[in-house]
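Ligand-bound model needed. magnesium ion.
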Amino acid sequence: IAKHDANSFIHVFDKNLHDLHQYESKILSRFDQALAQNEFVVYYQPKVDVDSNEIIGAEALVRWINNEGVLVPPTQFIELFEKNGQIQKLDFYVLEQVCKFQQMRIKQGKQLFTISSNFSRVHLFSNDFVQRLNTLVEQYGIPKSCIEIECTETAMAYDSEISIAILGQLQHEGYSVAMDDFGQAYSSLNTLRSMPLNVVKLDRGFLLATLDDEKEKANTIIRNIVSLIHDLNLKIVAEGVENLEQVVFLKSVNCDYIQGYYYSMPLSESAFIDLLSKGIFIR
Ligand code: C2E
Ligand code: MG
Ligand code: MG
Ligand code: MG
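Prediction:
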């Protein structure tokens, strides 16, 4: 590389870093204000029973509709908030919106279903996590079995002793516990063996194989994971299901629940309520 080129590369690199740093600083400095002004909005993505096509639950997924009206996906801020300590506030804020939603359903006499909320790894290391959850959920009078705590496999594997203890407490309190993104980390089987769980969410990556022989292998793995998870008396949710072919396959291997664009994108609360009033998916 000529000297000139190398220098201009460094220049561009610095500029990008600088922009990134500015972008991050801006996001971080606006967090408290954004929270206070309800810029964080909870979307709901249905989970569908493979046999009945009924909506049996949903996952709460946060979005940031910022003061310029732009919808910012969580992939652009969750990690930053994890590194800088805002994630605890945010995760509890999301759960509080879920509690409000459940409370509304109770008041309307609607049948409750379980809604899952994502909790970052940092909660597993906080002494008062379970206590704080209880306080919130009890304040809204929500049955704990209708709240599911999703933690990623990677988060659980990070310190398995602590995770086993905390997840055990959660189950003891009556919450449902789900392992998110199963199959993405290195120690999947170990983690599966040791963690107190109710539900395993199969990582979207398993459904991404496109070449024929790759797909055949991926499908063999999925088929065996489903049967392994059933033998452990757990339920399995397939994530990222986008087409009918995948649905047909997942039905054929007895997967319990499906979450993905094929049935529905994550929806705003009002769109989700509309969908619920229509009942089951007919497709
Ligand atoms: P996740 O918990 O694994 O959530 C599933 C992600 O897959 C969501 O992305 C969802 O929109 C997306 N998805 C669902 N179905 C499909 C599909 O058929 N195809 C494809 N390509 N994608 C699909 P989203 O909403 O952008 O969230 C990304 C991640 O951000 C989540 O992954 C979760 O790890 C994190 N996250 C979201 N909300 C929260 C939160 O309130 N707290 C924390 N700590 N993390 C959150
Ligand atoms: Mg999740
Ligand atoms: Mg996931
Ligand atoms: Mg994921």
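The two ends are 57 Å apart (CA to CA).
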